[in-house]
Amino acid sequence: IVSRKNQPDSTVIKVKDTLVGGKASIMVAGPCSVESYQQTREVGAALKEAGVPILRGGAFKPRTSPYDFQGLGIEGLQILKRVGDEFGLATISEIVDPRHLEEAIPYIDIIQIGARNMHNFELLKAAGETRTPVLLKRGLAATMEEFLHAAEYIVSRGNTQVMLIERGIRTYEKWTRNTLDISAVPILKKESHLPVLVDVTHSTGRKDILAPCAKAALAAGADGIMVEVHPNPAVALSDAQQQLNIPEFHKFLSEVKESGLFK
Ligand code: PEP
Ligand code: MN
């Protein structure tokens, strides 16, 4: 179903008033984790000012260590929605357990399925039973075929509103957190009609190369970019190293826009 052979026209997904996969590029930004109303609100205000329409923020965090901050859960989603409503922003957050979907959906406009759960077929099927748009992240070591089959799990259950996002893969390289597979973008655009985004933050883990990577993604045909933003990254409860502060975010955005690649 996700193949371009099956549907030559690109899928355009309406999220609130924003179209993903249409003529205009899309930016998704926000903190790694929702930590408090105040923290999320500061980011929401910055997004509103910058004209960025979709606010991200993790509430169920798939952390490497069980002793690290695990997210605020439903309370985090409530904060995200409150801020979204305040500034007219759409919201996206990761759901890790099919049992949370029903309770979570009223608070989010997009269900994020994280890299670690791309192979969680029961979660994919459950997301496929909903009619809420899904942003599916590429697995840490997923091939293009596995990635597209994961999307197929969702759409085959009737939820055709799926967006794909390249977020870097594991390689031997250590100077980036993951390796941004830029070739995934034109391949996915060629093979599938679904919108394709690139998460420049998790793919690089490096604030100093976000803008060139975003420009490369857009030049390769990406429909949008995801980036992490925190009012005070130094005290962030997750991914403190890689989140942009608000002035850095504005600078990143203007650099990307000035390139002319962000349509
Ligand atoms: C995230 O976007 O919050 C996240 C955990 O990313 P990934 O699933 O790509 O690691
Ligand atoms: Mn993160």
Automatic annotation (TrEMBL):
Citing just one GO molecular function, the answer is: 3-deoxy-7-phosphoheptulonate synthase activity
Keyword list (alphabetical) reads: Transferase
* Organism of origin: Paenibacillus ottowii
Q: What name goes with this protein?
A: 3-deoxy-7-phosphoheptulonate synthase
Per its UniProt entry, which superkingdom is the organism in?
Bacteria
Keyword Amino-acid biosynthesis listed? The answer is: no
Its lineage reads: Bacteria, Bacillati, Bacillota, Bacilli, Bacillales
Top enzyme class, one word, equals: transferase
Signal peptide bounds: none
User: Does the UniProt entry include the keyword Cell wall biogenesis/degradation?
Assistant: no
EC number assigned by the record: 2.5.1.54
Q: Which residues form a coiled coil?
A: none
